[in-house]
Amino acid sequence: MPCLLPRHVPTSPVTCTGRLKGIRLYLNTWLIYWFKTLTSLNDGETLMERLRKSWGLASAQLESATSLSPKTVQAILYGIIVLIALFRLATISVPSLEWTSWKEIDYLTISRNFWQNGFNFLQPEVTWPAEPPRVTEMELPLVPYTSALLYQLFGYGALTARAVTLFSSLLMIVYVFKLARREFNPFIGLLSALAAGVLPLYHPFSRLLFTEPTMIAMSVVSIYYMAEWADNPSRRNWILAILSLSLTFSLKLETLYLLLPLTWIVFRKHQFKLGQYWKFALLIAASLILPVIWYAYAYYLETIGAHLFGIFKGHDKSQFTTLLLDFRWYRTMAGRVINGITGGLYGFGLFGLGFLSLLLNRKGSLVFAYFLAVVAYFGLIAEGQIDAPYRQMPIIPVMSIFFAFGAQTLVTTLLAAYDQVKGLT
Predict the structure, then answer these.
(1) Phi (first) and psi of residue 409, to 5 degrees
(2) Entry pTM
(3) How many other C-beta atoms lie within 10 A of the C-beta of residue 400?
(4) CB contact set of 286 (below 8 Å; sequence gap of 6+)
(5) Cβ-count burial 313-324 (b if 16+ within 10 Å, e if not)
(6) Cα atoms in the Cβ-side hemisphere of radius 13 Å centred on 43
(7) Which of 19, 184, 222, 399 could crosslink 188 through cysteines, CB 3.0-4.6 Å?
(8) Buried b (16+ CB within 10 A) or exposed e, 332-361
(9) What are the φ/ψ torsions at residue 421 (nearest 5 degrees)?
(10) Which residues face 321 on adjacent strands?
(11) Half-sphere exposure of residue 105: CA atoms within 13 angstroms, side-chain side
């Protein structure tokens, strides 16, 4: 029988025999050897010191391996965009427009009415009321109106109906990359972009025509340009921040939850120098002009037309306290996020690993502010979260960044474990 003891352990014929006594002696010797190795290493090195050293070495190896040139980063980003676009194009007809979700049916109806009834942007119409007026209150109808223009140019079909959603998904990939790159590094940016492209594919609403995908993409664009403006307060960045925020707020009024990460961006720059905040207040005020005008008009439409989207008279806003005290609400939200966004427990574990990595390393304060804002949005419209599974989708961009750090941490852990095993054998 060949001797199986580590090479540093003295051997003898007894310890290498197959007899019971020899096996017991072998096991005792083996356990004592590994215990001493793990607890008291050479030169007085402790286990934690060795683990810390291995982790640092693994991190350096990974950083060196992922140090990419700008052209390589750009090529990889383009590759991610093309792959996601091709997959989405291949599945754009699923489900068919005739057997789709009730949410998409509403938007298909409004977009066809724009197309067939003269493209009056101020008159979003449904078809089910028996008598006019058939106008309905809704958010800024940019998404169905754009689809109607595509019908006019290329005809009605799945591609033209869902092209805006397709474009929005690719726009989100680009700006998740840009945001993660500016906050961390290009490698994290690429991993975040990949996650931002893949995670929505698990969600049944991710291909449909409705406003949320565009709103989510514009939310990331808004945060990015606000961060750019805070660090480089040029006129260009100021204007881009206003335009993106104005469109985001107009597409969905509840995106006011973004004020939390937006305020944090300015706070981390100026701290308690309150005199520096007037430009930020002016930027937010300018961003609210279009939303205030549009939603005032939407309120008028609600008083004279069909009641469809329930912007002002929809969900019972007072129910959120009752639901937040109900464990079943949290179980439902967890199930939808884990199964509908992260793809299951393994994906959610990767998110959790990234969350802990950033938390323990005290990095990514903007990412945590963004995450807390989305969680607050979940709670404030708790009833709407139950009624509409697509309302969990705004968490996708920020989860993508946590996924990136989870993947990096996992690779670093595997490299450190390999170094430990290599050093102890």
Answers:
(1) -65, -40
(2) 0.86
(3) 29
(4) 242, 246
(5) ebbeeeebeebe
(6) 2
(7) 184
(8) bbeebbbebbbbeeebbebbebbbebbeee
(9) -65, -40
(10) none
(11) 8
Rounded CA-CA distance 117/134 in Å is 12
Tokens 């977009």, located at residue:
111
| Residue recorded with tokens 């049944």 | 204
- Distance between alpha carbon 1 and the CA centroid of its chain, in Å? 56
The pLDDT profile of the chain, 425 residues, written as one tens digit per residue, is 455 444 444 554 444 445 556 666 666 666 665 565 555 555 555 555 666 666 666 667 667 667 889 999 999 999 999 999 999 999 999 999 999 999 999 999 999 999 999 999 999 999 877 577 789 999 999 999 999 999 999 999 999 999 999 999 999 999 999 999 999 999 999 999 999 999 999 898 999 999 999 999 999 999 999 999 999 999 999 999 999 999 999 999 999 999 999 999 999 999 988 888 999 999 999 999 999 999 999 999 988 887 778 777 665 655 778 888 899 999 999 999 999 999 999 999 999 999 999 999 899 999 999 999 999 999 998 988 998 899 999 999 999 999 999 999 998 888 777 766 666 55
Sign of CA dihedral 264, 270, 271, 277: negative
Which conformational region is residue 257 in: left (phi greater than 0), alpha (psi within -120 to 50 degrees), or beta? alpha
For the chain, what's the residue count? 425
Q: Where are the alpha helices (DSSP H) in 137-185?
A: 142-154, 158-183
Q: For tokens 């869902």, name the residue.
A: 162
